[in-house]
Amino acid sequence: MKAHLAKTMEIPEEEKRLENQLCFAVYSTAHAFTRAYKPILDRVGLTYPQYLVMLALWEKSEQPVKAIGEQLDLDSGTLSPLLKRLEQNGLIKRTRDSRDERQVIVSLTENGRVMRSEIDTIMGAIGQAAGCTLEEMKTIRGLLKGLRSNLTSAA
Amino acid sequence: MKAHLAKTMEIPEEEKRLENQLCFAVYSTAHAFTRAYKPILDRVGLTYPQYLVMLALWEKSEQPVKAIGEQLDLDSGTLSPLLKRLEQNGLIKRTRDSRDERQVIVSLTENGRVMRSEIDTIMGAIGQAAGCTLEEMKTIRGLLKGLRSNLTSAA
DNA sequence: CACAATTAAATTGTACGCAAGTGAATTTTG
DNA sequence: CAAAATTCACTTGCGTACAATTTAATTGTG
Predict the structure, then answer these.
(1) B56 vs A10, A18, A136: nearest CB
(2) B24:A52 CB<8 A
(3) What is the pLDDT of residues A53-89, one digit of tens each?
C-alpha cells in the first residue's frame, strides 16, 4: 500500500533542520518583504497590511468589509481596527449599507484615490529590491498559489 | 542607458492588481501555513513561532538569545516574551552566561527534549497538507531563499 | 586605567492576526 | 408570520513583529 508507506516513511534528519523547512522559507521571506516595504511605505504613511487593503480598494472602491477580507484572507477582527486607522488618516470612508444595515461599505476618499499615483514608485522600488526578472516573479507566484491552495483546502 | 530605462518603464495595469503581487503571494501563503500548523501544534501546546524556536533548539540546545534571533531573523523584542512563555510552559530554561553576563543562554528542559519525538507527526501532517513533492518543495525553497537574500541585501 | 562606544537582553508602545464572544440585521424554517 | 439560525461587523484577549528606549556588562581607545 503506497499511501501507508508514504505516511510511515522516515523523514531524513537533514530535512528536519529549521533552514530546510519550506514553511520557514515562506515565513522569513514574508518578513523580508515587510521590511523592504517599510521605508517606502513610511513616506506615504501606510503600514504593509494597510497598503494591501489600499491595493484592493484602488482596484474597486465601495467594497463591504467582508469582500476585502476575502481578497486578503483576513477576518474582521484584523480589518476593523486597521480600517479605523485608515479612516482616521483620511484615506477611506465607512458607511452602513442602507440596503443591508449589517454591512459597512468601505470607499476611498479623494486623498485615498490620489495616493494611487504612488503605486509606480512603490512597485518600482520593490521590483528593484526583489532583484528578479518578471518571469521569475511569475514562476514563484504560481508555485506559491498552488501551495497556498493545497494548504487551505487541506483544512 | 538600460538602468534608467528600467526604472522609468511603465508597469502594466494587470501587474498592479493585488492578486498578482509576489509580496502578497508570499504574505498569504505564510498565513496559510500558520493556519495549517495550528490544529497540529495546538495538540502539543505550541504556537507556530514557538515551534520554529524549538526547531532551532532541537538542532542545538544551549544557545544565546541572539543566536536564535539570527537564525529566525527576529529581535529580542519578539523573542524575550516568547521565550518567557516557553519557559513558563516548562520547555526551556534560561540562565545568564557566567562568562558574559550580558548573554542569556537558552537550553531545552527534559520536557522540551522529549517533545522532539513529535517532529515526524508534525512534519508528516504538513507535508500531506502542502501536497507537493519533495522536489517541488526544494524548488520553492531555493527560489524563496534567493528572493529573501535579495530583499535583505537591498536594505 | 578610565571613559566612551558597543553589545545583549528586556521593556514599552504600536500594529497586526486570529479565536471567541457580542449585538444588531437579515434569512430560513416550521 | 414568528422563532430559530445565520450573517456581518465590532470588540476583547492573547501572541507575535518591530521600532525605540533602557539597563547592565563588556570592549575599545587614549
Answers:
(1) A18
(2) yes
(3) 999 999 999 999 999 999 999 999 999 999 999 999 9
